[in-house]
# Entry
Amino acid sequence: MKAAMTAETDRLEDVSFDGSIAAPRTPELEQERRVAVFDLLEGNTFGLKENPAGASGPWQLKISAQGHQLVFSAGTGERPDLVDILVPLAGLQQVVRDYAQICESYFDAVRHLPPSRIEAIDEGRRTIHDEGSRILLGHLEKKVDTDMATARRLFTIVCALTPGDR
# Structure
């Protein structure tokens, strides 16, 4: 049974990756992953909807890969794998690829285009990021009480982990 959410307990305090998650291919992606984890831990909302062990947070999240899906294992230090949330990569692949491509366009635009064009590309980048965050939130909300801001930060991590065309 789930108690009322509190800022003290219904949050993530740690995010880790197991050996099934390859190290990012470039230093830039590694930095993006580190920043995304830092941002996530600085501010998030995360509580288990069903908690069979009656444990309370703050929570630890381990992200792994299993076949064609990501596994978000939430738990505590004493009970690290209380809940597994399976996220099929098929549902995220296209939006991650689109996001990687528009990020490339954005970084190129920053170097070569006037501010008005950069703003238009950045708006498209945010739109795609929001779409991916909503898809991820749809998978998470079955087992986790969370919010869009947390889903956005998690989607950024997924983008740094998932091979796009970058």
